[in-house]
Task: structure prediction
Amino acid sequence: MSSDRFGNAIDPSVGYARGTLLRGSADEVRRLAQAGRVAADFVAQNGVDKIAICTGNLRFYPAKPDDLTVLCEEWIGPGLFGEELRQAAIFHLGGQGHEAAAVINRTSAGIVATVLAHSDATPVLSLVAPGDRSHASVLRGARLAGVSVREVYDLAAVKKALVEDNPALFVITPVTSELSVLNDDLIRNAAAAGKNSGCVVFLDDAYGARFRPVLMGGAPSLSLGADLVITNADKAGLSGPRAGVLCGETEALIPVQAKASELGMEARAPVAVGAMRSLQGFTPDLLLQEAQDGRDLADALEVALGVSRITRSALGPKIDEQDATEVVLSMAAADNTNLVPAEVTAVIGMLMLRDKGIVTVNTHGQPGGRVSIRLKPTSGAVARAGGAAALADCLVSAMQETADHLHDKAWISATLFGEL
Result:
C-alpha cells in the first residue's frame, strides 16, 4: 500500500506513515530518550519492582559473580568461555555438534552483517508469512550493500525468484515480530531450494527459535536446513542481555563475524557471557508462563475495547496502529487528526509508562520498529501492573487522555519529547 486508511503516505522502508513530529529515525531517538526520562521518574516514585515490561524482551544480565572477574575480562575471557558458548548455542538451536557460534551486539546488527557479507551484489531474497514483512534490518542491510530485496510469501515464489534473480543470500523469517508464522515444511523446502541454487540460507529466528518448538511443537532451528541461524538473547523466554546469537556452518559464519568486527558490531566479552548464561538458563516453563499472561491480557482487553479491535497472538494481544487511531478519534468525537498512527500509539505508550510503568515498543522500540500496540508481557509483568484488568484499564485511560489532547500539538510534542 502507498498510503494508510487515513491517506497518510507510507514510508516503504519502515512500513508505516511518518508524521510531522515523528519524521524519521532522529525523532524516534528523541522519543526513546524521553521514554528513559519518564521511566526514571516512575522508578524514583514507585521503585523498579513496579516496572512491567510488555515488549516481549527481558533485558537483564544473568552473568554469575565469578564471570565478572574472569570470563568478562576482554583479552583472555573469550578464549575461556568460547567452547561453552558454542555448545550452549548448538544445544539451544538443535544443531548436530559441529557448528560454529558467535554473539553479535544486536540481532539487527547480525542481520545487517549477514547481508553485507553474503549478498554479493545480488538481490536479497526474503521469505516471510503472507501479510507480513521482513525485519527493517534486512532492508537497511540491503541498502548499505547497494542491493534490492525481493520479498516472497510461498514456495512457488521462492523458486521463481531463485531462477530470475540468482540471489547469493536467502533470508527466511520463520516467526516475525508480529508473530506471523511459517510452517516447518515450507521452511525446509524453501531452505533446500535455496541451497540447491547455491544460496547462503539464513534464518532470522529471533522469536522462532523458542516460539516454534515450545508453543507450536515445531522443529529446532538448525534442523531446518539453513546455513546460519540467529536468535535474540532476550526474547521469548530468554532473560537478556540484548544481543544476537549466531550459529551455523563455519564457512558461512566467519564472513559474517568478520564483517561485524569491521563495523564494530561484535559483542564484547561481557555481553557474550550474558548471552551464554541466558541460553543456559532457558526452560520452556518460562515461555509457557509468558504465553498464559498474554492470553489473560488479551481477555481483559477484549472486555475493555471489544473483540474486533484485538488481534491475539501466542504471546499477547495486538492493536493495529490504525485501529488504535480510530478508537482515539471515536473517543474524541473527531473525524480526523493531523497525527499519524505512529504518533498516536507513541503517545499512548508514553502515558502507560508514566502512569503504570508499562514498557512497550511504542516507547522503547528502536527507530523503524513496528508501531502497533503489541503487548507481550514478560515474566511477572502483568502482576507488577496490578493484574490484567488493571493493565487494560491503563491502556484505555491512555487512549482517552490522548483523545482529550488530540488537537493540542504542543501537548503531544511535550509528551513525546519532554520539550515545550
About this structure: The longest helix spans residues 25-46. Residues 65-280 form a domain with the Aspartate Aminotransferase; domain 2 fold (CATH 3.40.640.10).
